[in-house]
User: Fold these one by one.
Assistant:
Number 1:
Amino acid sequence: MDTNIIIGIILTALSLLAVIILTVLNRATIERIASEGCKTARETLKDKNNVK
Amino acid sequence: MMGLGMMIGAGVFLGMGVSIGEAGPGGLILTFALNGLLAMFTAMSFAELSSAIPRAGGAYNFARVGFGRGTSFLTGWMEWFASSVAGSMYALTFAIYTVRFAVQMHWLDGVFRMMDIAGDPARIESFETIVIKILAVLTAFTFIYINFKGSSETGKIGAIITMGQTIFVVTIGIFGIITAIKDPSRLENFTPFMPNGWSKILITMGFTYVAFEGYEVIAQAGDEAIDPRRNLPKAMIYSVCIVTCIYIMVAFATVVSVKTGTQGVEGPAWEFVGSFGKTGFGEAAKRLMPMGNLILTLAVIFSSTSALNATVYSATRASYALGRDSMLPKFFALIHKKTNTPHGALIATSGIIFVVTTMLPTEDVASSASIMFLFLFFMVNLCVIKIRRSMADELTYGFLMPLFPLFPILAIICQVILAIWLVHMSLIAWIIAPIWIFAGIAIYWFYARSRATVTEDEILVLEEQKHHEEIAPGKYPIMVAVANPDNASQLIQSTFRLCGAKDAHLELIHMVQVPDQVSLHDAEKYTQIGKEGLFEIMLSLAMHFPVSTTIRYCRNIARGIVSAIRQKKTKMLVLGWHGVVDKSIFNLGSKIDPIIEQSPCNVVVLKDCGGNKTFKNALVPVAGGPNGALALEIASILTKYDEGTVTAFSVDTGRRPFNLDKFIADNSKKFDIDTENLKTKTVEAKSAVKAILKEAKDYDLIVLGTTHKPLLAQMGRMSLPEKIACRTSKPLVMVKSSIGVRSWIRRWI
């Protein structure tokens, strides 16, 4: 198979996968922040670091 | 719905045919896949900003909050043009595909005969072009009227149209997949995969970028959404994800739509589809499925009108916001009494749409829209970085993007590359875009700058006094932030020593923080205590150094001071710290933490250093880096007056080898470290904090360099210097150096 096709398929798949992963990840972040109550960026990040 | 409606618009229908002709079958799929990823990066920036600033105005609003009047005017100005040009493009696409359908159905044959042009392809083409332009203008004005009637009608029509277009476009994609399953030989259409080379992708990505810009419209509707902090970011992210999947499906369908060797297709399939240019997708759909022509025309009618509706809405809101804030004449801010819509902005927008639709070729219209959106999104990606950095303690966020600021930086780089590459597609776009931007700069400079209304987020100068005329050349500008008389008395001694060593010009600043519930016009009531503080420090220092004083008011002291540093081009900031730790969300305090993080100059934080103290021996814990070197320099200056000594102290924890003598030798000239009165000491210990605190008992001053934290960890746990600062009761100085690329970037962003 042509190398270009292999690279193209990999790039397309990775791009689509990245879009889907980011959508799922961002949705989880939005829901988490909404459930905890919206705060300032510093408060949200501090809470996140403390949980870790 | 509105964002989705705007994305599945003309961009994809025009883009498919043009892109497959430019980049080939593989390039077509990759164009939409990579553009989807790039759109997701920028959508995340829009989502974060919309969740923090859920107000109508979109990108213009973000720039106003992040960068102030000038940049926000330019952003709003670009947003207005980008949306208006995109509106023209959608109107033209509607007209092109409708006329094409009418011609193929032979509905215009009678007209051709009547005009005596039947059988003359050149005259037919000219006639078609005129019909397309007239139909495009009529369509645009229909939707301008719908927008004039008000948002409820707009929303209902938009929702119905969006549903229709999504169903039609998905149907085309599904047909493509079914065709490939039934006849796998069509997959051979993907060979050659990239017939014109990989670089063509950059051109087609730039050209079709406009097909992904619907989330900008969602941001425009900021204050009309229910629970905007949650729903706006979700709407933006979902719409990008959905359209990326749909576009890839449709691109696949376009490639497999025709079979080499069938009627009229002699060369490669991609060449055949590409040869039709902007109507290439129509030819693909026609051959892909039964009634393909009709289905495609219906899809184009639905999607183009939906996108046109959304762009007119967006362009009107952008120009209305400029008029509302007095950056454009009041005409733009007129609201119709009956329909409650901004009819002045609507008239101006229809003017741009009319001119662009009638004057420019379709490909140049699409390129102009894309290039303007690329510039606009570039600004928004800068805004998200700037606003998260400077207003992290002020704004309430409903969404924070992960791995900040990786995605906005990647988006900025990609957008610059795509915008540059678009010159290969349309030179006219690259002429129009700068002309519009420079016209905007001129209007701002000569009209908007002096008329713009003040917003709540701005920092204003209340009172400014220069006690010496101008800063003499060669003088080192030092800014001292004064809070009150007590704080001023703590700062005098060290400031005097620093100013003497640096031959400084002194800028005394008092920031008045006005609570949110109090009008900014009442700020003067809060200035008295600051004036006393400034007077206290003036009494002692004005006779020795040139001094200027400024009183400003703002909603946030840290942001106000950082803004003043940038404006005054200050090289060193001196401020006091009371020593009380705010452990809730800050490491040292709500003012100190942001100032240390964001200041683009050297920062010297003094704790308990006032009251004519003598500094005979200073301890400087060092572990490398420019902050440690600056700490040695500051310690040299502060102890010099008392003929004291400085001890550079390092702790060998066994984790990281550090040569203290070499560090001093490397930095002594660069940082003006007095090596004559410098001692060195290294101890072995497991805990650096404990070792330093134990050693500090024998000294009368501790000077610490802060730790340079990576951007991603800025709001993390306490660093070693912060731990020491919190635990010691000795006079303490914390310093941060401004050397490096990071500080240079901070000066601008």
Number 2:
Amino acid sequence: MQSITEIVNVTREVSWLPWAVQYFFLIGLSIGCFLLTLPWHLARRARWEGVARLALAGALTCGLAAPVALLADLHQPARFWRFYAHPNLGSWMAWGAFFIPAYLVGLFAYSWAVLRPELAEDAAARGRLAPLYRLMGGRPSRRLVRATAGLTGIGAALVLLYTGMEVAVVGARPLWNTPFLPVQFALTALAGAAGLVLVLQRLIGPRAAEAEAALNGVVALALGASLALGLAWFLLGLSGLSAVHAEALASVSGHRRWLLTAIWGVAATLAAVLIALVRPVGSGLVTGLVALHAAWMFRWTVFIGGQTVPKTGAGLYEYTLPLGPAGLAGIIGTAGLCVTILVVIDALLPPARGPGSTTATAERI
Amino acid sequence: MTATRRGLLAGLAGACAGTAASASTPAPDAGSGPRYGMVVDLAKCIGCQACTVSCIFENAVPPGSFRTIVSTYEVTLDDGPGHRRAGMAMLPRLCNHCAEPPCIPVCPVGATFQRPDGIVVVDGDVCVGCAYCVQACPYDARFINAETETADKCTFCAHRVDAGLLPACVESCVGGARIFGDLNDPDSTVSRLLAAGEAATLKPEAGTKPRVFYLGLDAALAGKVDGTPTLWRPESDPPPVAKHGRA
């Protein structure tokens, strides 16, 4: 029998910092929230009316905060212009520099398109901002809404594609190098977005039972699908039917901390699915928080956890969350930025209106 | 001591995993310019880390970071009562300056590239510090330099090579374990060592075609090492039991 003890080796520091986790989390939430606005704005599904405004606020908030976190992960954010000066289009990350602005420009245009009637209606009450609101406002236009939703949808799909592929193509990290990863990112993003809107319902309202049930349905569906995909990932790895999955599983198996993470993740996700199914109304705060937790924890585990798996050395690298900008302060700072942006957006957006309002009636025409 | 290690590794080769499969030797191309590579004779490495230190001084590598290091392992063979042997195994690690480097295509701004002589370098004036190349390297050979905030790695001391000097690690190697030279020159020492057909590379399955070759590389050390993590690393988990046993 042979045994090896590592005597001298080097620990490689985590180089994709918690900023990266925040970016992938926020851009996923933004896209998920955008998708949650579509049932009302495109199909006029009545139960989604209460979701649309909060989801739009969530999409804008997270969409604006996400690139800040991404720039921070560059170690020196002002370098971002080099992405446009020297693009290497063979790299998925290079495409991201074009897809992110495309999505965000689309999102702003879509937001403007859906808010035009309400901006015009709200102008009189806006004091010094009234001219701006009158300028931005206008008659409802379903064609404009559809066109901008289509453009934003394409941008969103491209962002989901590049964020997933950028990580999945890294063959040097078996945990990342599986075709399931982009799908898992998308599913957990949708669940997290529904969770965010559920939490926003409680924080800034309005609360609507129909909307809460609809969102809980999304949470259950997205997290349920994510669990099923996770089970398939595990079984493919365990059985050895798929070499990349077997390698991915082998890279983390045998370590207690990974076992605990897996148990924690599955238990929390399963609990959220069950609560959302059994009590779709009245449980929104709990299911919302757990769905947000699932989306964030999945990314934390993949990025930070994944980087603690040595490529050549034995065991696992140690990672301790720094308290400064590259760690806890960065995470809290991003959250603070989100809250700030949300407060501003909530103040600037026309107030929520009931189903009988002029705008709501006009939009139904 | 060297003989002991040779004996141990020879024993490992016979009883356990065996030496790593020989790498396909790159065909010298005398018509083109030089293609630099390195051969590391593991039997000559004593793990003194002179290469590690000289690299740090030559390239101003920040504290806590390493462009090269000699990974050191204690390997124990236990074939029952009275048949327990232990020895040290050294494995100098550095950028492999691969013929198919996975770090280059992922760079979003083309900051990392391969020179005509095969040396993979990073243009610090273009690098954005995104660390994508750090993730893509299968050998953990790259890192973000804490002072420049850009990707950093071994360059075979390209500035010295361009001046007709040897890389600092080669020049400082006490045992002469690191041999550097032109793979395109059939008469170079590295070409002659490779011609014997006994050199192996790390992680050949990664398809990167490394241009750092090892003589006497044990298969158990050629990939991700399955063993007890380094002793001085604070580890909250109980170390996983290394399983190399073959009845």
